Amino acid sequence: MKKLGYEELQAYRLSPNFVLSEFCEHSVAQEHGVYNVPNAAGIQRLQAICQNVLQPVRDFYARPVIVLRGYVSPGLNRYLDLCPESEHFNCCAVDFRVEGIKSQDVANYIDAHLPYDVVLLENFDFPWVHLTYVENGNRRLNLTVEAGQRKYPLSKNFSLWELVNSNTATAHKMYNVPDEAGISRLRYVCENILQPVREHFGKPVKVSSGYRSPAVNSVVKGSSPTSQHKKCEAADFEIYGVDNYTLADWIRVNLEFDQLILEHHHPELGPNDGWVHASYTKARKNRRQCLRIGSDGTFHGLGAQKCRH
Ligand SMILES: [Zn+2]
Ligand SMILES: [Zn+2]
User: Fold this and answer.
1) What pLDDT is recorded for position 308?
2) Where does 50-118 have alpha helices with state H?
3) Cβ distance 140 to 116 under 8 Å?
4) What's the pLDDT tens digit per position in 85-94?
5) The CATH number of the domain covering residues in 149-309
6) In this structure, which ligand is nearest to the CA of 23?
7) Residue 61 Cα to ligand 1 middle (Å)
8) Based on C-alpha coordinates, what's the Rg of the chain?
9) What angle do CA 145, 146, 151 make, to 5 degrees?
10) In whole angstroms, what is the distance from residue 210 CA to residue 236 CA?
11) How far from 252 is each of 242, 247, 262, 288, CA to CA, in Å?
12) Per DSSP, which regions of 106-193 are E strands?
């Protein structure tokens, strides 16, 4: 397919009120000169989203639908850093809002009346709807609702709710549910770390923090902007009655992990002082890095040897 110019993208109608340029334009793509236009099969999928969901929404509300993110090319993603499994890559996803209408209401309307695969709300302050649509087998999965109902399982003993529930998000009233690509990463953390821990110690594991949306992460004190919590690759947890050093050390010896950190653990203040942070990734080789972090600094190892960085 030859490269389409700006005017051709604007003239390329996907349904009465939607044109292809709305799904391809991106300020970052423009800034870096990235050609962000899908192939013919991708355009067809965008057309299916327009005809089956966006156009009916547009017609029902009779208001402009603002597309915030449609297609994301691999070239563009070098600057955006979405999960490599994101449905935005294959033109099955769109982020949008309807001018003057609460995104919550839009999601409810879609849920009640239209075919869709997944909807979820993102960004509490000025929320938008992230929607995915597939040609066959739309599941009608409202992840904002599913996560809240504590039913959606990630492994035998862990539900999505436990990995997205966040005191910070609640306090700041932020949505904190990732898309399905993110959820599959949370599932890896459960299957490879939390579930084996649960089975070995035979006691409930209290997860204090799993996923943090970019907005939530930015208000968590001391959190790194590159935190693996943001990528759905990490969890903070502990087991009441098991001291955090013992827990971390069992993981070090028995499990595969990317990074294992014993955080703010002062044994003299009790076995559960502080918490254990563990991450797991399938995006690259797990590093098996062990650290201890406290108010006195960051040290290699879980605490036995104390060499300063
Ligand atoms: Zn999205
Ligand atoms: Zn952490």
Assistant:
1) 43
2) 55-61, 74-80, 103-113
3) yes
4) 889 999 999 9
5) 3.30.1380.10
6) 1
7) 21
8) 22
9) 140
10) 6
11) 15, 9, 11, 8
12) 118-122, 128-132, 141-142, 153-155, 158-159
Amino acid 223: pLDDT: 81
| CA 142 – CA 128 distance, rounded (Å) | 14
The answer to whether domain 1-146 and domain 149-309 are alike in fold is yes
Ligand number, closest to the Cα atom of 69: 1
Which residue type, as a one-letter code, is found at position 14? L
Class of the 1-146 domain? alpha beta
What are the boundaries of each domain within the chain? Answer: 1-146, 149-309
Query: Which residues make up the environment of ion ligand 1, defined by Cβ < 5 Å?
Result: 93, 95, 130
More confident residue, 50 or 152: 50
Backbone angles phi, psi at 144, to 5 degrees: -65, -40
Cα 300 to ligand 1 centre (Å):
37
pLDDT at 305: 43
Global pTM value = 0.83
Give Cβ neighbours of residue 165 (< 8 Å, ≥ 6 apart): 176, 207, 210
- Nearest ligand, CA 182: 1
Q: Which has the higher per-residue pLDDT, 114 or 81?
A: 114
Residue 125 has pLDDT above 80, yes or no: no
Residue 304 has pLDDT above 90, yes or no: no
- Residues less than 5 Å from ion ligand 2, measured at CB: 236, 277
